[in-house]
Each structure stands twice: as structure tokens, then as C-alpha cells.
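Support reply, case 0932

Customer input (verbatim):
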Amino acid sequence: MARRIAPASSRGRALGGDRARQVVAQEAARIIVDHGVQDFRLAKTKAAERLGMTDRGSLPGNSEIEAAISEHLQIFGGETHSDLIKALRRAAVSAMRILEQFDPRLVGPVLYGTAAAGSVINLHVFSDTPELVAIRLGEVDLPYKTYERRLKRRRDHAETYAGYRFAQDEFSAEATVFPVDGLRQAPISPVDGRPMKRADMRAVLELLQETT
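Our regenerated output:
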């Protein structure tokens, strides 16, 4: 007798809550890594739709997706992914040297080692006059585009910060500008709700030495 395959719409009901979230997290991780989707919310919504899991209880948290990305890259990334992370971190160091006067810090997937092809190098820089960052980029003939980003420094309060997007080596980099006193308190990560981990240039160089 042929095996009957359940339709996609019933798969979510066939799995328990924890297993359903794990399956969605794994699919979201695949979407992020393979298709360059950077928005966790969008990735898990697409994953749930593809798997027919419309129950909100089946949607994993961002930290679950981040863990699934790490697992996916360990299984499928291999040496190619390791080389990509090294190249991204070397480019990050180059960008940090250009912006050294603004005490740059590396944050996000390039720091954590979960970046994929198409990932952006995310830097936090510090100046009470954001335009000085633009002037510095102009001094080294780096074309840039401006952007604004809303981030929380406290759980109940978000602020808008200016930023500059530019090319560094063959990658895209973003420098979000915080006031000088923002160096003392990192904004809250949208992934796990904790202060973002930041690394100065020395720490990034140490990471590169560890993986050489």
C-alpha cells in the first residue's frame, strides 16, 4: 500500500510544539543562509508558510533561529564558510582602521561567526557629530549612503541613530553612529533581548589569529 503523505497544512498539527518550532527554525536558518534574508521575522514567517505551520506557537524565537543558523553552517558550511568569515573579519578590520578615530566596534553575525554570503559588516562608531563620520569616509574616497536605524538602549525606549553604508573590499559595511557616551552601554539585541556583544579592533584581530 502506498504511503499517504500529510498535506503541508496538517504538518504543524502533527508535530508537538517544541518539535514544530525546531523544524521552523531549521527552515528559517536555511532561508537566511541560502537566500541572504537578513530579517529573522521575515525568514521565520516564510519558513512557517512553506511548512504549513500557521499556529503562532510553532514560531521559534530569534535565539532559536540563531542557534539553528550556527548548526546549519557547521553541517553545510565547512571550510568555505570558515574562509568567508575570515574574509569578512579582515574587511571589518580594514573598515575599523579607516574609522579608528570613532572607536569602532564590530557587532552582529560577522562577530558571532554566523554570517553568510551577502551578510553586512555591522559596526558601531561613536561621535556626538555624526557628520564627522561622513567627512572621514569622504577623505578616503569611500562613497556612502545614509540610513537611519531604531535601536533600544532601554527595553521600553527606542532611539533613532544615523548610519553610513559603504563598500569595504568586496563586502558591504554599515557604520551606525552613537553618541560618545553610547560606548558605555550597548543597545539591546533584537535576537535575545540582551545588550549586544561588541568587539574592538584588537579583539577582532585576535579572532583572526585564532582561525588562521
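We compared this against your earlier run and they match. Two observations from our side: The radius of gyration is 19 Å. Residues 1-14 have pLDDT under 50 and may be disordered. Please reopen the case if you see a mismatch on your end.
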